[in-house]
Amino acid sequence: MSQNHPSGGDFKNRVMKNISLHLAATVFYMATRFFLPPIILSRVSLEAYGIWALCFIVVSYLGMSAFGISNVYIRYVAEYHAKGETDKINRLLSTGPAVVLALSVVILAVLWFLLPGLIVSFKVRPELHQTAFILMFGTAATFMLDLSVGAFAYVLQGLQRMTDQTKVWVVTYCIEAALIVGLLFAGLGVYSLLIAFAVRYLLAVAWYVVLCYRAIPTLELHPRHFDRSLLKLFYGYGGIIQVSGLLSTVLNSIEKVIAGAFIGVKATALFDVGEKFPIMASQIASTINAGLFPAMSHLDSRAESGEVVELYVGGSRYLNLLLGYLMGYLAAFAGPVLQVWLGRPDFRDTAAFILACFCLPYHIHVLTGPGSAFHRGVKKPARELFYPIVQGVLVAVAVLVGIRVAGKTAEMVAVTVAGAMVASALCYIAFSNRYAGVPMKRYLTTVLPLGLIPYAAGFLLRWLAQPVANIEGWGRWPTLGYVVATGLMYSGLVALFIFPLINRTERNFLRDRVWRRIRPAS
User: How many CA atoms lie within 13 A of 162 on its CB side?
Assistant: First the structure.
């Protein structure tokens, strides 16, 4: 078959290669980010770090202003490339960035006037107002510039060249981490984070441009290729995803917004620290979702609906297993993990409570990803609106009841938002299964147990270890030994519980791809 129409085996290998490499790169990214917060907090106050966390709440909302457009690139570049229609890719890339650039200018102008009031609403001390404005506007401007001219990254995804995109990401986030540390020790304080962030994004954009021209030698961006007829893709297909994405982004950071508005910017910092590990784990697992969307778009363009459904079920199964393994230990051993990571008992207990509360919610939230990839891949993005609407209603009701019963505390916000996240995500999974044609019985027996069993293993191990080791008052290094030891035992328990549930194909994969590589070294 031609390069645009690879054989089934070649296509599956490409999808697996894309996902595997991106997964490894994400793990490495998390490793670099693991060491940054303790270094940053040693040079920056908790309040200043809370302001930096607020920057990314603002950025996430701005990012959703072009979220639908980025998905248009991925979906339709995959389709045009599968059909060999390079001329349509030229028109798409000459139209999209022009639309986003105009939108970015308007958004940044509005943000310039709204930011002072926003800063006051988050109870930032007056002496930090200027710092907050510089950080927030600088971060937003960098991000909007990337969205305007960063379409090339999404083109690489649509071309199934995620390996190239991943390489750029790895190099640039390593440069960012090195710059943060260097500038912090140079005495630039919290501004070090903004400078490193801007350098990373500018380098990445330039690199993506070069890679796209190499992948498509006939690629040409020119005003004459601007096609007004393509606007219906951006404001039709893209617009629906836009609304869904905007609602989802608001809800994904709603606990930080509520905590900041009701309690103060320090509470926002506590949630940022407490949710760091669940978010990192969910980002690692989300690499599977990143590979599913372009793959499903490619298969749908070739009318291979059966393959799309099997990809949906298989992706959900492996995603759930990975999420359960990562989150199960974090939920059970939140306190020791934070003690090793931060070494600061002054806010460890509250942060540990938040960490434990949000493991399962982020787990189930990421597990909705294959459903969203399916809806977008088959050109039915309006179905995604079900999820944020249900979640928004549940969060509002839960928080209002929580305030009345328990008052305005960080623990109340964590419990109510976490519960609403789990309930709404489960409803959306059932909704997606219906449209994908996957019986709930099949999902409940072949997918869901793989992710829940690790939690049982984690809390069983915690119960068994408690009488043996009381870590209260332990130092950082003894606690690290405890975390390593319990982590190894946890991995063994999970393997013992999970192995009977995996099928013959998965066992053969483990034997051929994993065990035979480990055995010679043992």
Answer: 28
The amino acid occupying position 450 is: L
pLDDT category of residue 66 using cuts at 50, 70 and 90: low
Distance spanning both ends of the chain, measured CA to CA:
42
Distance CA 116, CA 101 (A): 24
Question: Residue 194's closest CA among 70, 31, 48?
Answer: 48
Mean pLDDT of 128-142: 90
Percent of the chain predicted with pLDDT > 90: 18
Report how far residue 144's alpha carbon sits from residue 197's, in angstroms, rounded to the nearest whole number: 13
133-140: average pLDDT: 90
Give the rounded distance of the alpha carbon of 222 from its chain centre: 33
- Alpha-helix residue ranges (DSSP H) falling in 44-85: 46-63, 67-82
Residue keyed to tokens 């070294």: 521
Alpha helices in 122-236 (DSSP H): 129-149, 151-158, 162-185, 191-215, 231-232
Q: Three-state DSSP class for 64?
A: helix
Average pLDDT over residues 121-148: 86
Q: How far is CA 146 from CA 163, 318, 350, in A?
A: 20, 32, 36
Copy the structure tokens of residue 295. Answer: 């793959």
The residues, any chain, with a CB within 8 Å of residue 441's CB and separated by 6 or more, are: none
> How far apart are the C-alpha atoms of 396 and 79, rounded to whole Å?
39
Residue 519 clears pLDDT 50, i.e. is over it: no
| Average of per-residue pLDDT across 9-30 | 64
Tokens of 82: 């599968």
By the 8 A CB rule, do 132 and 124 touch?
A: yes
Please answer whether residues 284 and 26 qualify as being in contact, where contact means their C-beta atoms are separated by less than 8 angstroms: yes
Structure tokens at 134: 């510089």
Tell me how long the chain is. Answer: 522
Query: φ, ψ for residue 304 (rounded to 5)?
Result: -105, 70
Task: Provide the CA 162 distance to its chain's centre, in angstroms.
Answer: 16
How many Cα atoms are found within 13 Å in the side-chain-facing hemisphere of 290? 26
* CA-wise closest residue to 457 among 498, 407, 518, 420: 498
Q: How many CA atoms lie within 13 A of 463 on its CB side?
A: 6
Q: How far apart are CA 133 and CA 118, in angstroms?
A: 10
Q: Which residue has the higher pLDDT, 25 or 384?
A: 384
Instruction: Give the residue from 307, 315, 296 showing the smallest Cα distance to 9.
Output: 307
Q: DSSP state, 502? A: S
Residue 1 has pLDDT above 50, yes or no: no
Q: How many CB atoms lie within 10 A of CB 224?
A: 9
What CA dihedral angle connects 71, 73, 76 and 81, to 10 degrees? -140
Q: Is the pLDDT of residue 9 over 70?
A: no
Residues 156 and 143: their CA atoms lie apart, in Å, by 19
Both tokens of 345, joined, read: 């008992």
